[in-house]
Amino acid sequence: MKKTITFLGLFLSFFALAQMGQGNRGRDCNQTSSTYDTTLENTFTGSIHSINTGMGRSIGQYTLTLEDGTTLGLTFGPPRYINQLGIALAEGDSLQVTGIVTTNAAGNQILIARQFGLSGKEFSVRDEDGMPLWRKSNSTQTRNSKKGRGGNGSRGGNGGQQGDCILQYLATTPMQELSKEESTSLIMLREEEKLARDVYIYFADLYNLRIFSNISRSEQKHMDAVKVLLDRYQVTDPIADDTPGQFSSETFANLYTALTESGNASLAAALQVGATIEDLDIFDLAEGLALSDNTDMDMVYQNLMKGSRNHLRAYISQLTKQGESYSAQYLTQQEIDAIVNSPRERGVVYDAEGNPLEDCSNRRGGGRG
Fold first, then answer.
1. How do residues 147-204 score in pLDDT, each as one tens digit?
2. Which CATH architecture has domain 2-26+157-340?
3. CB count, 10 Å around CB of 290?
């Protein structure tokens, strides 16, 4: 019952969301990014204005003038790697660059590229998880070298491997009796994750901002993880129609309408919706953990919370860039601040107690949530 009240509270609170985040406009020049976060990506079109030889670390290797006349520092990675790709950029070259914008300590805005188009050709300097390809290239050479000495090379890995590792963990975890409360929590969470996915799909189409499309794909993985538990315990899936915006529960159908209408007001309002959904998701997952004594269920919930914390960090980071702030709706403000001020959780899988699983963690590509 407490969870039902929580959802009704969310429904009511979102009528006020369109009024949130309208003050404190402007850009925070202290905003920095220590890691490449693919949820913050956007695509920019412009032309090379100048080449900053030897100054890539401070103002970008290049200066890119966008179509609206604004300029950004632009960096691709080590010049030697660009040379290996056979690319020679010159002033006046037109580019379409996908990457993230960060602001360094000096207040310079730098566009860190992941991929770019030049003269009808596409080039990538980072993989889909944002990991530098020049490091991957070096790692491959190192592994080959080790193999040449009789070693078996680096273990490596990707997001699929971590997913497989979780399934292997569940396969070795005995099934336990599922209480009515635990079953209700799984059913609710399955639709809650679909709600998040569907709302983000809607905003991705509306604003063409990569954070929404990236996190919507992550929410699909969250849905799939809950479905594994539903199937394991032979609980009927509440999702009869997977079409975005379609729900068996009238409560979730009404929520979808309220959330998307609220986010229609502005990009800032949509980002507030995203942050609030993740705030609620973490709150509900913590409640689910509190009532569960099933090891497999606890393990899945711990990792869903990790993903939601990463999503919350991403949305609040985008709000900060908009000159906005986020106020806690379900967690306490202290809990929100603690999450935002802690590092993004990449490449880690947690056990039922929230401790890193050594055999699953620290594999590339698994920390996107």
1. 333 333 333 334 455 566 777 777 778 888 999 999 999 999 999 999 999 999 999 9
2. Up-down Bundle (1.20)
3. 8
